[in-house]
Amino acid sequence: MIDSPFDDCWNRLERAHEHRSALAAIWNEYLDDEPFDVSLIHEGGGVHILRVWQTTPIPAGFALELGEWLYNLRACLDYIIWATCAHVTGQMPPPDEATLQYPIYEHKSAWDNNEYRLKHLRDHHREMLLRVQPFNSDADASYLRVINRLARIDRHRRLTITTGYIAERAPVVEVPDGCQVALQWGQRLLVDGEAEMARLTVSPWTDDMTIWINPLLGIDPEVNEWAESKSWRRIPFSDRMKMIQACVAADIAGYEYDCRGTSRRSELLTQDYVDACDERGRPTPIMRKPPPDVKWTAPVAGGPGTRDRFEGQGFPSGPASPDRS
Questions:
Q1: Distance between CA 202 and CA 176 in Å, rounded?
Q2: Best CA proximity match to 220, nearest among 61, 24, 53, 57
Q3: How far is CA 133 from CA 89, 146, 194, in A?
Q4: Distance between CA atoms of 82 and 111, rounded to whole angstroms?
Q5: Terminus-to-terminus CA distance in the chain, angstroms?
Q6: Which pLDDT does position 2 carry in this prediction?
Q7: What is the pLDDT of residue 22?
Q8: Cα-Cα-Cα-Cα dihedral of 39, 217, 242, 57, to 10°?
Q9: Domain boundaries, given as residue ranges, for the chain
Q10: Element of type H or E holding 160
Q11: How far apart are CA 87 and CA 219, in angstroms?
Q12: DSSP H helical segments within the chain, as ranges?
């Protein structure tokens, strides 16, 4: 039996955390094999390209775990609405549960067309949801938009495209005495397994010169579809995932406290929010739907038995009592 419908929200979030840990383990094991290489290519006239390329594909398990992480977060958001409706209506399951979902829309028209799904929520719940919609904020920075977009790709189309991102870069160059180096930064995202990270122009230059470089770079995992975001790609991949989980945890805590007057993560809430919830008061207690009446079959007379049968001898699930032999 569920003590609170919000318990399943926390369970989903915990499972997402497990998938995030699995992602880190897969990536670290992948790096153990040194799957990236670097070369300095002279293009002539003292111009050199520092190129990074991938020598070993990223394991498919990485994208699979990422998909599971996204699935659990998206499900968690939907669970929040289901649990809130259960408290508001005092019914579990809540009415019209098939239409319930956490709204995530990039256009106001989509919100208007689907607001009927939220009819069992209180007015302030709808206002809370409206404020956080991607169309009502910086859509590129919206964690809800990230979850929704990537989860839809994984759920309905294909695995997300995983690659590498040059998160740290501090190359050191040794050139002949009297030469100068002009550095130009290039790509950080590996596309089709390659990135031209930097261009170095050494001057003056003669073709008998030799230069040496220590690339000093660090590569993080990346998702092509996520790297398109200017807001998110500047944040290390692991930090992004932590941030999104923290946002979802705050979402659960907010609605849970509003409905129940308590939350297992109430420290995530501001005192002003807690005071506003307390002033509004709580919905009526949930009345669980009574179990259906038992439909008994017609009576059948019992047949003769044996001691072996009573003790479960030969029964697939094993004996019903210890062996007395």
A1: 9
A2: 24
A3: 24, 12, 36
A4: 18
A5: 40
A6: 56
A7: 97
A8: 20
A9: 7-280
A10: none
A11: 46
A12: 7-32, 60-89, 108-114, 123-131, 143-156, 224-227, 230-233, 237-260, 271-280, 307-310
The tokens for 275 are 């005071």
Q: Could you write out the three-class secondary structure of 272-322?
A: HHHHHHHHHCCCCCCEECCCCCCCCCCCCCCCCCCHHHHCCCCCCCCCCCC
Orientation angle between helical segments 237-260 and 123-131, nearest 10 degrees: 170
Q: What's the rounded Cα separation, in Å, for the pair 10 and 7? A: 5
CB 152 within 8 A of CB 104: no
**In angstroms, rounded to a whole number, what is the distance separating the alpha carbons of residues 5 and 199?**
57
Q: What is the pTM of this model?
A: 0.85
Please enumerate in sequence order all residues whose Cβ is within 8 A of that of 133, keeping only pairs 6 or more positions apart, or say none: 103, 104, 105, 111, 144
> How far, in Å, are 117, 129, 130, 136 from residue 105 at the CA level?
13, 10, 9, 9
Rounded CA separation 283/260 (Å): 8
Q: What is the pLDDT along the chain (325 residues), one digit of tens a residue?
A: 457 899 999 999 999 999 999 999 999 999 999 999 999 999 999 999 999 999 999 999 999 999 999 999 999 999 999 999 999 999 989 999 999 999 999 999 999 999 999 999 999 999 999 999 999 989 999 999 999 999 999 999 999 999 999 999 999 999 999 999 999 999 999 999 999 999 999 999 999 999 999 999 999 999 999 998 999 988 999 999 999 999 999 999 999 999 999 999 999 999 999 999 999 988 878 877 778 888 988 988 888 878 887 777 877 665 455 554 4
